Amino acid sequence: MFGFFKNDEKEDEKSETGIIENPVFGKLKYIHTWWSFDRIDVTMFGKTYSITYSVASNEQKEAPDSIQEETFKRFMSEKEKFQSKVEKVVSEELGLDGTFDIGEVINVTRLCISRDGKCGIEMEIREEYLDEIDLDELDIIPDNSFGVAVLPELYIIKSSDRFSEIFVEQK
Q1: Do the Cβ atoms of 68 and 113 come closer than 8 Å?
Q2: Which of the four pLDDT bands, split at 50, 70 and 90, describes residue 85?
Q3: In Å, how far from its chain's centre is CA 168?
Q4: Which end of the chain is more exposed for a tag (fewer CB within 10 A), N or C?
Q5: Average pLDDT score over residue span 28-36
Q6: What are phi and psi of 30, to 5 degrees?
Q7: What are phi and psi of 41, to 5 degrees?
Q8: Measuring CA to CA, which residue among 134, 155, 156, 136 is closest to residue 146?
Q9: How far apart are CA 101 and CA 15, in angstroms?
Q10: What is the pLDDT of residue 171?
Q11: Dihedrals φ, ψ of 121, to 5°?
Q12: What single-letter DSSP state applies at residue 129?
């Protein structure tokens, strides 16, 4: 069977599914950004989460650079300190008033490294709690996802759209 493709369509298809090996991040696959094959463990809210990590790319689909590698190395070397700080800021900012065990409500989903060396942790309110927790009251918009910027400064980002702008979108 024959197919007709423009040359640039073939190239786009190849780069969309490209796989690279990086000395710091390991094996990565490009799907709108670089995604890890490996997982890392983070421990927060009394649980250990095995999460993937993503490394933002740009319009040219460039591989991760030394700034991103250094950010990831720093996160990994100071992971316990960062985990504790993230846990504290999320607990304070969400203030679930003791009605819920925050470890049951929150799911830690991914570590993100931006093109400019910022690092953030993406989280979500678990689906089974969406009927019981008022996301509007918590100011989490537009869905049940949010995140915490870890580097260079620590702060909560209650908008999944804003989190994506900072850590995921191509620049």
Answers
A1: yes
A2: very high
A3: 8
A4: N
A5: 93
A6: -90, 115
A7: -95, 130
A8: 156
A9: 43
A10: 55
A11: -115, 125
A12: G
Long-range pairs for 23-26 at CB < 8 Å and ≥24 separation? 23/69, 24/64, 24/69, 24/72, 24/73, 25/53, 25/55, 25/64, 25/68, 25/69, 25/72
In this structure, how many other beta carbons lie within 10 angstroms of the beta carbon of residue 149? 21
- Give the integer Cα–Cα distance in Å for 145 and 41: 20
Dihedral angle of Cα 63, 66, 68, 70, to the nearest 10 degrees:
150
Tally of CB atoms within 10 A around 81:
11
The C-alpha angle 162, 32, 87, rounded to 5 degrees, equals 40
Which tokens hold the place of 133? 């927790």
Say which residues have a Cβ less than 8 Å from residue 37's Cβ, sequence separation at least 6.
26, 27, 28, 29
Closest CA to 149 of 95, 107, 89, 92: 89
Q: With CA atoms as reference, report the closest residue to 104 among 160, 49, 45.
A: 45
Helix, strand counts (H, E) of the chain:
6, 9
Q: Pull the structure tokens for residue 132.
A: 């019981």
Share of the chain above pLDDT 90, in %: 60
